[in-house]
Structure formats: structure tokens, C-alpha cells
Amino acid sequence: ILKGELQSLGANPVQRAESALDIAPPAIDIVPLSKSLGVPAVRVSNLEEFVTAMRRGLASRAPNLIEVTV
What predicted TM-score, i.e. pTM, was given to this entire model? Predict the structure, then answer.
């Protein structure tokens, strides 16, 4: 929306200004971020890994993060 508005005004922002409007980067790796905040985290990619992670998380009776990749 903001990029469209700038274009309709005839603005030509420099690359640095335009990158501030881009919401894609940077990619945030949520598992290490969670761990750095003291919350156990794991990344799973199949049902068996998910079931194991869920059981561990529930058994811990504490916050846990499970990132499911598809």
C-alpha cells in the first residue's frame, strides 16, 4: 500500500528507504529466538516428530514452542 502511494505521488525513494517498506526480510529463525528467551523450542517436519515434541512439551508443564515446517 505504501509503495503504491509513493508511486502515485511520483516519489522515487532510494533503495534504503524502499527496503524499510519491505516486510519480507529479514527471515526470523523463531526456534533460536525462543531458546534465547528461555523458552524450550524445537522444529519438526513430520507427524512423528510433532507427537514427540508435543508429549515433551506437555510433560514439562511449562511454555514450549513447536515450529512445524510444511
Answer: 0.64
